[in-house]
Automatic annotation (TrEMBL):
Protein name (record): Peroxidase
Species assigned in the record: Turnera subulata
PANTHER family with a match to the protein in the record: PEROXIDASE 25-RELATED (PTHR31235)
UniProt KW Lyase keyword: no
Enzyme Commission (EC) number: 1.11.1.7
Pfam families recorded: peroxidase (PF00141)
Signal peptide: 1-24
Disulfide links within the chain: C57-C133, C90-C95, C139-C336, C217-C249
Length: 355
């Protein structure tokens, strides 16, 4: 077990050095704190730290990594699903594990959450962490680290994670349905990202996660026939690819690969597909034609190293979206599916009645 850990640390270290070696690339940008209207982002630097669990739970990252690896060996498709789950968490109320709360009307029960997967992995990791370090590691931090480990398992880059997120106590399905679902225009995508302190560059590079994973046919049905009321399919869809998709999509619940060329490799082929009219989602395809996003698309299409380092930097930005919560509004959840039962706040009068 010890040996296994030091081997892992060595691998991670090598990858970290690779990441640092490419850190001179000018595009790397610090986490932005752009005025956020929907979510009030806090400066993550003041709240999060890479050594957050160093004393309270030094084994945390190792446990998360081991569990992710075991799940990945059983079902490698779960890695993409965990990355997407992390995006859906951070996109609504910041990275606070609000997507994991499981009751009627919660984000997880929203329409936009229907094809989210991987919840059982987070539960599994959490129960092991509760055994080893009770009430210490937040569900939001677990999901953040799991998404990083999923990326590495898929052959993508490694990055260091700032820890210390808290779990939220509010989760609303209506808010989860605000996450882009594949039919938006580029302006809507840019606005959505910018409202969360993320840039156009973050948008294009993080959309590169669609180099792996799958989509339900539901998300592309609007492209296959009568696109935007024209009575014809989407003209920006390659004819052969269109035929392929029409054949594969018998039901809206059928699944198709997001990257038709190299569906299981974490590479830049996704961007090359866009140039060949083979983007699956219309939101991805439009990144190629819109002048605000196309320069980044052509850049990543040809520069794998640049893609890797910027993906890592932008994932840190995504994971650093934090939202101001009222006092007592956040906690370290004991079970990621439910908020902790309240005790100390049961009698607020008592708390404030002292002279
Ligand atoms: C830019 C806006 C985005 C849009 C419109 C979008 C849309 C979608 C859609 C429609 C699907 C398929 C859902 C289904 O029908 O089953 C999907 C899957 C996926 N998305 Fe995105 N997405 C966006 C951004 C992101 C970001 C920022 C990430 C990660 C950082 C991400 C990671 C993924 C992954 C990995 C999958 C595959 C999931 C699986 O195989 O289970 N997406 N996305
Ligand atoms: C983009 O979508 C928004 C709604 O999400 C709409 O208000 C706007 O008019 C659209 N812009 C274009 C250029 O179609
Ligand atoms: C069509 O789908 C098959 C697999 O079903 C794939 O091998 C082929 O490359 C696809 N062709 C196009 C043009 O996308």
């Amino acid at each position: 077990m010890k040996k296994c850990f030091s081997l892992m640390a060595a691998i991670l270290l090598v990858q970290l050095q690779l990441l640092m070696a490419s850190a001179a690339i000018p595009l790397l940008q610090p986490a932005t704190g752009l005025a956020a209207s929907l979510t009030q982002t806090l400066s993550p630097q003041s709240l999060l730290s890479q050594s957050y669990y160093q004393n309270s739970c030094p084994a945390a990252e190792g446990i998360i990594h081991q569990k992710m690896q075991a799940w990945f060996l059983k079902d490698s498709t779960l890695a993409a699903s965990i990355i997407r789950l992390h995006f859906h968490d951070c996109a609504i109320r910041g990275c606070d594990a609000s997507i994991l709360l499981n009751y009627k009307g919660s984000e997880r029960r929203a329409f936009a959450s229907k094809t989210l997967r991987g919840f059982e992995i987070i539960d599994d990791i959490k129960s092991e962490l509760e055994r080893r370090c009770p009430k210490t590691v937040s569900c939001a931090d677990i999901l953040t680290a799991a998404a990083r480990d999923a990326t590495v398992l898929l052959g993508g880059p490694f990055w260091e994670i700032p820890f210390g997120r808290k779990d939220g106590r509010i989760s609303l399905a209506t808010e989860a349905d605000m996450v882009p679902q594949g039919r938006e225009n580029v302006t809507a995508l840019i606005d959505f990202f910018q409202a969360r302190g993320l840039t156009i560059l973050d948008l294009v590079v993080l959309s590169g996660s669609h180099t792996i994973g799958r989509s339900s046919c539901y998300s592309i049905l609007h492209r296959l026939a009568n696109y935007k009321g024209t009575g014809k399919p989407d003209p920006t869809l390659d004819i052969k690819y269109l035929k392929n998709l029409t054949r594969q999509c018998k039901w809206s619940s059928d699944m198709v690969h997001l990257d038709v060329t190299t569906p299981k490799t974490f590479d830049t082929q996704f961007y090359n597909n866009l140039g060949a009219k083979k983007g699956l989602l219309s939101t991805d395809q439009e990144l190629f034609s819109d002048p605000r996003t196309s320069p980044f698309v052509s850049m990543f299409a040809t520069q794998q190293e640049l893609f890797s380092s910027q993906f890592a930097a932008s994932m840190v930005n995504l994971g650093n979206i934090l939202v101001k919560t009222p006092p007592g509004g956040s906690e370290i959840r004991v079970n990621c599916n439910y908020v902790n039962p309240r005790r100390s706040y049961a009698n607020p009068q008592r708390k404030y009645s002292r002279p």
